[in-house]
């Protein structure tokens, strides 16, 4: 991925406000993103919302890189400012077992997005008000979007336990 520096007034203000909490401000295919340290993510999101008008959370997702040294997961929030007509990605990286703070107090819409991340990747969000599965049955074992998981094995186990047959395939 070839990125270019993103050095607008907003990027400069992010660096002024959060100092070492900002790792990088870049653009990829004309899509701006800021990389933040994990312990600054919610603070940056709150500032973007209250001070810069990024009033809507569009999405939250995770990228799993199990073979990467140090930080296995990239957590990406996509926020949008209607008044600026601008979209921004806020990205942070951390290793398995780290519990990022929840963005729910900043964006209520983060509730179900973070629940989906928990369901699919097993990432727990510290302080989340209702962290439970949202797509899979409550008794499902595992997290199917982790690259080191076998969705087929998880599915076969669930079918065997719940339907009493050997395979749903």
Helix fraction by DSSP (H/I, runs of at least 4) = 25-40%
Number of strand elements: 6
The helix/strand order is: EHEEHEEEHH
Note the overall shape: elongated
By CATH, the topology of the largest domain is Beta Polymerase, domain 2
Map the helices and strands.
Elements: E1 4-5, H1 9-18, E2 22-28, E3 31-36, H2 41-52, E4 56-64, E5 73-81, E6 86-94, H3 110-121, H4 151-163
Parallel strand pairs: 3-6
Antiparallel strand pairs: 1-2, 2-3, 4-5, 5-6
Describe this structure in words.
By secondary structure, the chain is α+β, with helices and mostly antiparallel strands. It folds into two domains: 132 residues, Beta Polymerase, domain 2 (2-Layer Sandwich), CATH 3.30.460; 31 residues, no CATH class. The protein contains four helices and six strands, in the order βαββαβββαα. The protein has a six-stranded mixed sheet with strand order 1-2-3-6-5-4. A hairpin with an 8-residue loop joins strand 4 and strand 5. It is elongated and about 60 Å long. The N and C termini lie far apart (37 Å).
What are the key terms here?
169 residues; alpha+beta; 4 helices; 6 strands
Describe the structure in brief:
This protein has 169 residues and is α+β, with helices and mostly antiparallel strands. It contains 4 helices and 6 strands; from the N terminus they run βαββαβββαα. The protein is elongated and about 60 Å long.
């Amino acid at each position: 991925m070839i990125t270019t520096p993103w050095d607008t007034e907003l990027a400069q203000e992010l660096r002024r406000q959060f100092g070492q909490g900002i790792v990088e401000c870049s653009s990829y295919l004309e899509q701006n993103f800021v990389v933040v340290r994990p312990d600054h993510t919610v603070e940056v999101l709150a500032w973007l919302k209250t001070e810069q008008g990024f009033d809507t959370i569009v999405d939250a997702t995770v990228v799993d890189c199990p073979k990467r040294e140090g930080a296995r997961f990239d957590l990406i929030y996509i926020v949008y400012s209607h008044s600026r007509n601008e979209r921004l990605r806020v990205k942070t990286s951390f290793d398995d077992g780290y519990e990022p703070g929840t963005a729910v107090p900043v964006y209520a819409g983060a509730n179900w997005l973070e629940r989906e991340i928990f369901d699919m990747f097993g990432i727990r969000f510290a302080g989340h008000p209702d962290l439970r599965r949202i797509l899979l049955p409550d008794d499902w074992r595992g997290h199917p979007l982790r690259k080191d998981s076998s969705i087929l094995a998880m599915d076969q186990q669930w079918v065997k336990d719940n339907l009493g047959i050997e395979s749903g395939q």
